Amino acid sequence: MAKIIIRKERMVKLRRIVGSFVFACLIVVTIMSVAFASESGKDSLYVTPEWLKANKGSVVIVDARPKSMYSKGHIPGAVNAEWTYFANMKGSPGSPGWGDLYPKDILAKKIGALGIDGKKPVVVYADPGGWGQDGWVVWILRLSGIENAKMLEGGFMAWKAAGGEVSTKPVAAKAKPFKIESFRGGYNVTTPWLKAKLGEVYIIDARTPFEYQGARIFQEKRGGHIPGAINIPFDSVFNEDQTVKDVEELRALFQSYGLSPDDEIVVYDTAGVRSAYLVLVLRMAGFENARNYDSSFHEWAGTPELEVVQGSDPGAPSPAAVKDSGEKNDSAASS
Fold this sequence. Notes:
Layout (H helix, E strand, L loop, with lengths): L1 H36 L8 E2 L1 H7 L4 E4 L3 H6 L6 E2 L23 H9 L9 E4 L7 H11 L5 E4 L2 H7 L26 E2 L1 H7 L4 E4 L3 H5 L16 E2 L15 H9 L9 E4 L4 H12 L5 E4 L2 H6 L17 H6 L11
Parallel strand pairs: 1-5, 2-3, 2-4, 4-5, 6-10, 7-8, 7-9, 9-10
Helix pairs in contact: 5-10
């Protein structure tokens, strides 16, 4: 009888252990599912200066500002990589491929040279009031498969305001091996793809109203905007203190322009930098079908057969332009 009682007690104990293990596994799976189910929520894209202070030793920090600003003072340990580090700058603005991302093999080496291998989290920062270079870098890293890349909200100014240390000592990163198997799908589009999709997708021009209406201030071949594009300047997502608006406020902002979270959205600016930032914010706010047009208005305006519209109205592609685009070519999107 004693042996039977002992066996029963062991069985009860074993069941409790198994039950606790299964429950713990379910919790982990649930947490992981929530964490990777979408890019929505402010914590999915930004860290605070306080968080970075506490975790500075366990992340790769990238200063996306120009080298001249980096040299005057940066977050200790940060490596410097301004937006042109990742892009083909051969030729002149408007020529095919100018300002576009490097091919994935070259880009992978450039990323690895910054000490990034995709294992450590990456935090990127810039200065408020710029072009959103920090968003451009994070967009590139996520396009390349690095999910744990985020921005420092408020940038370098917020870091200093929070009492963060500042260094003038340049950092030479230890290169890490990094490979891009393929670019992440649904993040970027090409000029042929967008031409074929005119009239079918929602297009956002992330530039200033001045540029949208026709001003040429960055050597654009022509002034104006892509037919049908609505103007949502990328800096409209910031509060006065240069922090990012809350998700609910952002959703209301985008919905006020007639956008829905289910819409297929393409964003562009002059060379894809401001638009990359806005794409990330759109996705954070739940508009997860937003993509960046990396070649942006420089290439569009530099291609004579492509239509542009001047003035404050979006306009629309001419019937001839839509007809000439031929069959829709989804494969033209950069993965």
